[in-house]
Amino acid sequence: MPETTRGCILTGDKQTAIEERKLRKVGPKDAVVKVDYCGICGSDLHAWSAGGAVYEYGTLMGHEATGTVEEAGPDVLGLKPGDRVAINGFTPCGQCVACRNGLANACLNNMIRTIGQTSVLDGAFADYIWLPDVDVTAVKMPDGLSSAEGAFTEPAATVVHAIRISRFQVGDTVAVVGAGPIGLLCISALQAAGAGQVIVSQSPGPRAELAMKFGASAVINPRDESNPVGEQIRGLTDGGADIVIECAGSPPALQQSIDMARPGGQVILVGVNEQPTPIIPTTLIFGEIDVKGSLAWDHKDFRIAVDFMASGQVDVKPLISDTIRLADIQKKGFERLKEDRSLIKVLVEP
Ligand SMILES: [Zn+2]
Ligand SMILES: [Zn+2]
């Protein structure tokens, strides 16, 4: 059993260091997992480039990970050493008002109880990770799913959750706003769920091309000022989308999303936008359109995501732009992702 691990620590603005950290002792329900892959998430990149954002300096980052159980405590029920797992690195407190109302995904204490986002629970840009309550914080992976693909479980579970909490029904027309990793996964998950048309709003370029490869029925251009997206989508559908899933998180995307919904339609917000964002309320009122936020996932979403990927219904392989070593994460990971928008997902292999 290793007592320490190398890990990538956020040390300052656009700065990281590979340092040695102590691994916690394995308690009755805990485990130490040897990391196989960990994806660099948009929120990691945001924290790296925006002065830490919601992360603290000193955080050992990384939360989209797979690994192999190295040691499990005596009270662990479903996992044993050697099992490959997808890490669901979030342990809701069970006591706050969100948890008490059945919204553990929105636990008010989630930042300090999520791996790789504060210095409380070290993340998976590391050789090893210690996981509390591992029957909850890891899901066994089926044989058919590679560990590299499994590293997409967290983003895939995010889109599964957005679809499951929406009013989506089989055959619905859905608009997906933004074709980054989340938007692209959303296209596949919607098809697995039985969507009718899936229309993607994305400006022309590599991401728009990928959206078509992922099976979008059409891609519309949100930057075309002579032809607003609302008009474009009404030209392709019966009065707009039944459901709009906003995966861009940019201020203009909010009004555009509302404009794309049909009367009585629903807009689901997945992309994280922290800016005050003006909208024209009558566009909601006249169409009785409702807007609902979607955060993270619950356990069932996480398992569905694993199953979608294992069955091939959600194929994440085209999203893997590169696989790099932990020692290269600063230059080949963060610095390159900041520069090159054609990269979708970079995986880190210790
Ligand atoms: Zn993430
Ligand atoms: Zn809670």
Describe this entry's structure for a reader.
It contains twelve helices and 15 strands. It is α/β, with parallel strands linked by helices and 350 residues long. It folds into two domains: 4-152 and 316-349, Medium-chain alcohol dehydrogenases, catalytic domain (Quinone Oxidoreductase, Chain A, domain 1), CATH 3.90.180; 159-293, 3-Layer(aba) Sandwich (Rossmann fold). The chain is globular and about 60 Å long. The two termini are 17 Å apart. It binds zinc ion (2 copies).
Give a short synopsis of this structure:
This protein is α/β, with parallel strands linked by helices.
Secondary structure layout:
Layout: E1 4-12, E2 15-22, E3 31-39, H1 42-49, E4 64-72, E5 84-87, H2 97-100, E6 128-131, H3 134-137, E7 138-140, H4 147-150, H5 153-165, E8 174-177, H6 181-192, E9 198-201, H7 206-213, E10 218-220, H8 229-234, E11 241-246, H9 251-260, E12 261-269, H10 282-285, E13 290-293, H11 299-310, E14 320-325, H12 329-339, E15 345-349
Parallel strand pairs: 8-9, 8-11, 9-10, 11-12, 12-13, 14-15
Antiparallel strand pairs: 1-2, 3-4, 3-6, 3-15, 4-5, 5-7
Helix pairs in contact: 5-6, 5-11
The structure holds zinc ion (2 copies).
One zinc ion is lined by residues 41, 43, 63-64, 154-155.
List descriptors.
350 residues; Rossmann fold; 2 domains; seven-stranded mixed β-sheet; 12 helices; 15 strands; 27% helix; binds zinc ion
| Shape type | globular
Structural class: alpha/beta
Number of separate strands: 15
Describe the main β-sheet briefly.
Answer: 7 strands, mixed
Overall CATH class of the largest domain: Alpha Beta
Radius of gyration from CA coordinates: 20 Å
- Are any ligands bound, and if so which? zinc ion
Mean pLDDT: 95
Helix fraction by DSSP (H/I, runs of at least 4): 25-40%
| CATH topology annotation of the largest domain | Quinone Oxidoreductase, Chain A, domain 1
Oligomeric form:
single chain
